[in-house]
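Case study B.
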Amino acid sequence: MEIENQSNWTTAIAKTFMICNADEHYESYSAREKMLAFTFTFLQTINTDSEKYQLLLAQNRLPFLLHPSIKVLKDEFSVFASNLIFDASNTGEIQARPFISKSYFPILWNAFYAILIYWKNDTSENKEKTDVMVEKTIHFAFDILSPNAIDSGIDLLNNFIKLR
Amino acid sequence: MITEQDKLPTSKVARASSVFRTSMRVGANYIKHNAQKLVGSSVSEDDLNDKNAEELFQLMSQLKGSALKIAQMLSMDTGVLPKSYAEKFALAQNSAMALSTPLVMNTFVKYIGKLTTDVFDTFKTKAEHAASIGQVHKATKNGKTLAVKLQYPGVADSIHSDINLVKPLFLRFIGVKEKEVQPYFDEFEERLTDECNYELELKNGMEIGAWSSAIPNLIVPNYYETLSAKKILTMDWIDGMPLQTFIDTETNQESKNRIGQALMNFIHTSIHEHQRFHADLHPGNFLVTDDLKLVVLDFGCVKTIPFDFYNFYFSLAKDEIVNDDIALRKCLVGLDFLRNDDTHETEKLFYETALKAIQTISKPMKADVFNFGDVLFHQQLQEQGREIFDNKEFRKPNAMRGSRHAIYLHRAFFGLYSILYKLNATINIDRRFIDKVQVVK
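Model:
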């Protein structure tokens, strides 16, 4: 049973990667859009057998203790997310910050996982409410990661100290 | 032009709190007003209304999606807000949210089952226009340029809660009881739900397109059924300038008359021959092509009126009815302007107001040629709305009158007349329509 659970998530993620990479637009997307596309595609994939995946998600009853099968999903997701964070840090879309850069993956994972939980409970037609949630959650997560006023504030402060 | 989606107060909590803030402020204005009255300083009711209108506008312009649509309808149809605000609302349509490219793709896969690249030869992922409930993309297929309209997810579901958010504030503002206006809110909700139903819009567009192809200088774009779905609507892309730009820049009066005439023929044919009309007549829904043809866009708001309502209503445009007291009364009761249990005073009031309003609206129908640029006529039309709104008698219980079908008919006529006024158009009136009305006796 356990092994079957794992392979379920693994196939879903593998299929998602395949669809994304086959899309001609995907490479030209920004990191934010890649995350959106990845999430939408993933949801599409698990939508084809939604009952099974809803049951799999329901196995996880304790919020801070991941069920082994969800752990597998997290590991699979980390392959995608780590690459995304690495590339986006290079292009400057995500601000590399000392000490806290380590928490970037947890932010993306929690956004992704929160969407899955919402999807599980979504009863709207065609799971339309989840689509809205995806956009808002991912925008929020990326707004935290992207350069913002605090970064330019620190930069300014830094400059003051240097020039003094 | 298009702002990002995450900046909008779309969550219900955010919306609820902004509604709450404004109701607090409207309440505060009333307290301030009454306190000033108590100490004897002279304040006019006008001051209060202006202040509240400002607050109401501030609130409504923060809302997007269906709440904005409701705000637009309420402000334009009821004359609650001063004209300048109503105009601002009409423009507010153009500053809605933008969907991310992945969501656009997702919508296609979900509703058509294919990627945009498989459906079209080319597809521009950046939206060309945004409106309150959707956005428009440009695409090509088999050498034809197409406009593809996508609806924002979640819009249809939020209509009911949006109406319930705006309602209490609106009731407070005009000072009427909920029970009195419920039928009107039901009507708004029904039309908004229709507007989110692209399958219905496709049907409307194809149907109206078929019967209006005979009207000169008028274009209704072709709709493509196989490329459309519940949240996706595909039609011909037609190049042209927005009607408002045409109004502002065109100097040749004959060209303006030609456009006005096309619009008038379109509306009259719809109302009189089919009792089914485009009920969202503002300049944003029309284009003018280079060879001076009027393009009608957006069949999301199409209203069908029952045939007996139609006959009651347009009987009033005939002199033989207006001069016959008994027949006139019967029509007004049929239209729910008068009720059989009215006291003598209320009856007199409603009788006079309704008669005056209908006479103004039907004035152009009695002429052969009518100049809609006539400032006097336009003022008359405006003043009547204001008069009804200012008269305290109309805020008493039992005072919301008129069949709910009348809202959209009035809306269409006000829209039509105000566009024709802006065009300063002189129009030939086809009187056969009115002559054909079956008089109710």
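The longest strand of chain B covers residues 134-141. The remaining cases will be described in the next quarterly update.
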